[in-house]
Specification:
By secondary structure, this protein is an all-alpha fold. It is built from 22 helices and no strands.
């Protein structure tokens, strides 16, 4: 039984973007009525004058007045709302513009692709971009967003070669490039092209570090939107940690355990990536047959600081390490604890998923509830959910809800500034935008619900696999015990087993553990157990 290197593609990957080019006037349909044409012309004039909300309102009125103008009005509304900073409202009209099939309309709104993807998220737009647009529809600036969407979509479908090809077509100057490097590095590693994967993960971590340093400098100068900058810092740090982890995993896959160790050690212990990385480091030590170091790595999970970590695979590895040392009593104790700890939880996951299978909103609310609960919750179900809702992806969904509520307030304020406009709720352009924003809330709840539901299903599948591994360890242990009783001597397999003494670097010292966990020591513990293999 060995650790199989897997790259988990989480939808947490968010996209950076930069401001896009200005919007050029579209040629209106000459068959449209003169009155509706005049309204559309007024919308263009307001847009050029910088009165973006008013421009959007007039463009909307033109489309309502004459259905032939709807495609053009969608494009002008999209442009106006983006310029007004109402990105979630603009997203609906962006999609409707793509669905018109009008090439000129599509190409004009596509100049806002990157700007919308950074503000709203790629998952809302990906299927529409793939279905309704083509490579030649994009300008140089926004083409990277389209290729990134294709690369992510094909990688999720298991088409690694296609994903690599799309990323090859991206500009290295694209703000999406660091995330594209992580995708391509993952694809290379999955294909066994380890050297190419290492290059991409290395460049990815360097790019992410550049963003981290730049944002921190901005903090020092006290410039910019503090809330948004803090999230971008967390996002960049998370990407840096995951790219380093990808590099370490590739070394592990190559059997270069020393290089893997050195790379894992570069990941910041304060990162949310690190608790799972500690488990991977333990596997790396197991690969070197340093079973006492494996147990020491796993012992760090006993620290109060890491009490929030919920990882059934760590318990399987602990039992496997004791088995490798022929310490059957210890292995059996871990096996019994495993069944006590996870049997009920597995049933609870299965029951919850089945009873709420068609209610994705319920899954989203479950994720939100776990996220808002304390990280150090005693609720086992929430501890499990913390594994995937604490990352940037799900946090972005929660923050998007807050942004949508803010947009509602801003729209109401804009509307009240307009003279001669009905303020009756549910009517006119303002009423329609409220419907759009309610749609946005439902759409992100569905996206978040799918994420939580699939994560629970994946974890349940993994848990079943862990039960199978535990059963195998139990059978192997019983088989060896039976062999000893019958033959009164260890088997050939047992005589060959042992424990390689872990190497000590110049900056490492041996100290006896006194029951206290310190942050700088976490992950560096080594057990001092003697192998019982080969003893009669």
């Amino acid at each position: 039984m060995v650790f199989k290197f897997k790259f988990r593609i989480w939808l947490w990957l968010k996209d950076l973007a930069i401001c896009c080019a200005g919007f050029l006037a579209l040629q209106p349909n000459l068959c449209a009525s003169s009155q509706s044409m005049q309204i559309l012309n007024d919308a263009q004039s307001f847009f050029q004058a910088g009165h973006y909300f008013k421009a959007a309102r007039y463009a909307f009125a033109a489309g309502e007045e004459d259905s032939q103008l709807k495609p053009i009005s969608y494009a002008w509304i999209t442009a106006s709302l983006v310029r007004a900073g109402l990105y979630h409202s603009a997203s609906y009209f962006f999609i409707r513009s793509l669905q018109t099939g009008d090439t000129a309309v599509k190409r004009k709104v596509l100049t806002y692709t990157q700007d919308l993807m950074i503000r709203v998220g790629a998952d809302l737009f990906r299927k529409y971009l793939i279905k309704h647009t083509a490579y030649e529809d994009y300008d140089y600036l926004n083409r990277g967003a389209y290729l990134y969407a294709l690369a992510k979509d094909t990688l999720l479908k298991g088409k690694e070669d296609y994903s690599i090809g799309y990323i090859h077509g991206m500009s290295k100057e694209s703000p999406l490039w660091p995330f594209a490097l992580q995708l391509r590095g993952t694809a290379y590693a999955m294909l066994g092209k380890n050297n190419e994967a290492l290059l991409d993960f290395d460049e990815c971590s360097e790019k992410a570090k550049f963003y981290v340093d730049r944002i921190r400098e901005k903090f020092e100068d006290q410039v910019g939107e503090l809330r948004r900058d803090r999230f971008r810092l967390y996002e960049a740090e998370d990407l840096q940690g995951r790219c380093l982890a990808g590099r370490a995993r590739t070394y592990y896959q190559m059997g270069n355990f020393i290089k893997a160790d050195q790379t894992y050690e570069q990941i910041n212990k304060k990162s949310m990536v690190w608790p799972d990385i500690l488990f991977e480091e333990a596997w790396n030590s197991f690969g070197k047959e340093e079973y006492n170091r494996t147990l020491g790595k796993l012992a760090s999970y006993k620290s109060p600081l890491l009490s929030f970590v919920f990882n059934s695979e760590a318990d399987v590895l602990r039992a496997q390490a004791y088995l490798a040392l022929c310490l059957y009593g210890d292995a059996n104790e871990v096996i019994n604890e495993f069944h006590t700890k996870y049997s009920t939880l597995g049933e609870e996951i299965k029951r919850y998923v089945e009873s709420n299978s068609n209610n994705l909103g319920e899954f989203y609310q479950l994720g939100k509830s776990a996220f808002r609960d304390s990280l150090y919750t005693k609720n086992a179900f929430n501890q499990l959910i913390n594994r995937f809702v604490r990352g940037p992806y799900f946090q972005n969904l929660i923050d998007a809800e807050r942004q949508i509520q803010q947009e509602k307030v801003v729209i109401q304020q804009f509307s009240q500034m307009q003279t001669g406009v009905s303020q009756e709720p549910g009517y006119g352009f303002t009423g329609f935008l409220n419907l759009v924003l309610n749609w946005r809330i439902r759409s992100l709840q569905l996206i978040g619900g799918v994420f939580v539901k699939n994560s629970l299903i994946d974890y349940h599948t993994s848990l079943i696999s862990d039960f199978d591994k535990i059963a195998f360890i139990k059978l192997e242990m019983l088989s060896r015990a039976k062999h000893k009783l019958i033959f009164k001597k260890p088997s050939v397999t047992e005589r060959s087993r042992g424990n390689i003494i872990p190497s000590r670097r110049d900056d490492q010292y041996y100290w006896s553990f006194n029951g206290e966990f310190w942050l700088d020591e976490l992950g560096d513990y080594v057990f001092g157990l003697e192998s019982e293999c080969g003893k009669s």
